[in-house]
Every structure is written in C-alpha cells, then in structure tokens.
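ingest -> fold -> write
write: protein_1
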Amino acid sequence: MEVIKTEIEGVVIIEPRIFKDARGYFFESFSQREFDDKVGHVEFVQDNESMSSYGVMRGLHFQHPPFTQAKLVRCVKGKMLDVAVDIRKGSPTYGKHVAVELTEDNHRQFFIPKGFAHGFAVLSETAVFQYKCDEFYHPEADGGISILDGSLGIDWRIPTGHAILSEKDTKHSSLKDFESPFVYSK
C-alpha cells in the first residue's frame, strides 16, 4: 500500500496495490503489519458498514474521552466525500480539514486519528461505507460539531436543498461555540 501524507500530520490517504486482469481485481484491503510499519500501531476492535443515498451528510462526529476513536474508512460502492476536521486544542491545524473523495473505483482509504471530527457526504445515487474503529461505540460519549458550519470552509459538493441530515446532526454547535475535549500533543 502507498501512504499519502496530507497537510495535517497523522491524517493519511491509503492507496492499495490493485491487481487487475480479465477476471476482475484483487487487493489487500488491510494488513496489520503494513499499517503498523507505514502509519503506526492501531488496534482496530470494531468494523461498521452503512449505506446512504445521494445527499446524505453524516457528521461531524467524534467520541469524548476516554472513548476516543481513530478510524480507517473506505467506500466500497458509489462515491463520497470524506472529511476529517482537527479539533485538538493547541494544534497548529486546529479547525482545518482534509477532504478526500472515496469511490468504489479508486479503492482509497482514509485514516482519521483520535482528536478529529469525521463526516461524509454521499455524491452518488447510493454509497456503501465501511470503517474500522479502534474503540467500541459508546452512545454516551457521542459528540459532534455542525457539518454545515461555514467557518470550516468545507465544500461538501451537495446543494443545500439536497442535503439530508439526521435530526441529531442538525443540533451540533459550530466550531466557535465548541469546547474541545482534545488537547494537542506531539
């Protein structure tokens, strides 16, 4: 796998080596050994999958300490825009984001470390999204910032009239009204 660094340290895009022929394709979607060597040691404990329709926007989510999560995400069907926002107090990139298009054709994966809010928008008719987490889901630890916070400068590529959000996601505060539970450290 090739690891592509982004403008925010620790947030990386992973491109697998794909073997194609007349029968189709094969690629190794995860190798603990290679991940440890090229990204860092993370012990994933839970795999999740969701299916959403065009215009669905989920996020920007995180889990409060002590249940913080790092995630390794990918789109196995369709196309989506996936975003990580740095919410670590004191970080030189606080409030900045990395956005990457994940598709069934590019097979890219996106690693989001702890201390980031995560969200996505579905750009195709439907999309199937899979992700690994290094901490189990704890509903009592749910947190978020507004996915529609204009101060973040995220181009979700979904016209406002077509955006579909859960009721929960419409209630998150903007970044300026948010008190982050995360502290940046090298």
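write: protein_2
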Amino acid sequence: MNKLGKLALAGIVVLGGTLTYTAPTLAAEVGSTTSKGDITFKQDDGTTPTTPTDPTDPGKPVTPTDPDKPTPTTGPLRIDYISNVHFGEQVISGSDTTYKAKYDEVLTSDGVTKKYVPSYVQVTDNRGSNAGWKLQVSNDQFVAGANELTGAVLSFKDARLNSTNTARPANFAAVTLSGNSVNQDVINAPEDTGMGVWTNTFGTVTGQDADSENDSVTLAIPGETKKVASSKYVSTLTWTLTDTPD
C-alpha cells in the first residue's frame, strides 16, 4: 500500500473512533399534576390622592411648595394636582399689556432641593375599565372686591402630556379663558387611553429661579381697564373631570 493509502486509512480509523455513540437512558414518566396562580382585584377607593409627579420627569415624586395649592378630588378617576397661576406684583399700565406667569415651585424627592416646572395639571385613572375621560376648565373674571379686570384674558398654550404609560390621550394645544366662559377642553382621553397617571404641562422651563417667567401662560389686560393699586385680583378656575370622552 502506498503512503497516500495508508494516510487515508488512518483518517478513517480516527474518524470512526470519534463517531462512537452511546444512547442515553430515557426517564420514564410516573405521573403529573397541576397547580394554580390567582389574583383578586378590588377597586381603588380614591381616598388617598396620587402624589404629584414631576411633569418634566414622569414617575419621580415632587412636593409643591404653594401653601394655597388646590384640593385634589377623590375616587379612582381623580385630579391629583393643579398649579395655581401667579403673575406677581406688576406696575399699572395704561397700555394693552400681556403678563407672564411664574413657574411652579416644587421640592424634589429629597424634600430640600427646589425645582421650577411649568404650570400643570395631573390626572390619575385607576378604574381599570379603560373607559376614557375628559378634562375641561372654565373661570370667572379677575376681581378685587367689587372691582373687575374687564376684558382680561387668561391663556394656556404649548400643552404637553407626559406619563410612564404609553396609551396617550389627546390634549388641546391652547386654552383661552375670558371670564365667565363655558368649559374649555383641556384633555380628551378616548376609550383605551389615559390609564394611570398623566400630567399636562403648559410650556417649558427656561429658567430655574423664582423670577423666571413662563411665556406659555399669560394674562392679557386692556390698557383702558380700570386697575386699583395695592389690590390683589383673583380669578377662580374650575377644572371638571368627567368619564364621558368624545
């Protein structure tokens, strides 16, 4: 046998050695049974409001510092928080003037660090029905005693929704309130949207100090409107949450 034949034969022997195989012994089944997993739900009674969340960083709790912050509603579908709108002290003007609101001051989760965020409203839907909801707002005119800021117009624009959830409702880019007006749509959450916690901000933050102003929340006052010095004019905004979306 020549050298090439010997090499080929040697390769077959080695290959044959590597293919040696022993079949495993199969386990015999001797029986089976079943177990269960279960969960029971109860309705959120809504007596404890959801902690206000950072509208610019959803899911992170904050503590608003406004001592006169609005009272939250109750129930599994509820309004957790609404910013008051402060325009501060302004010099009287006889010309048409538009004033910008202050940002909303909150404390971050450490309870110490101040942060300024746009004016916002927070809604929680823990009903579990996925039926949807609608948020509307109306107001009366700014008054100080018997004195009214005739013709004053409060505007919210550049609305932005935020949540850790993804089933997004629809918001309205601008809301205009001229006093004694009918309900204006703010958010509409059709069926299968708006579950969980949602914030709706107006504008973005351009400064982190107490004097920073939000040009997305404004109060326009005609120059000819009578203005009484050293008087605080107040408007009451009524926010209405219903379970009847469009």
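write: annotation protein_2
The radius of gyration is 32 Å.
The chain has one domain: 63-242.
pipeline exit 0
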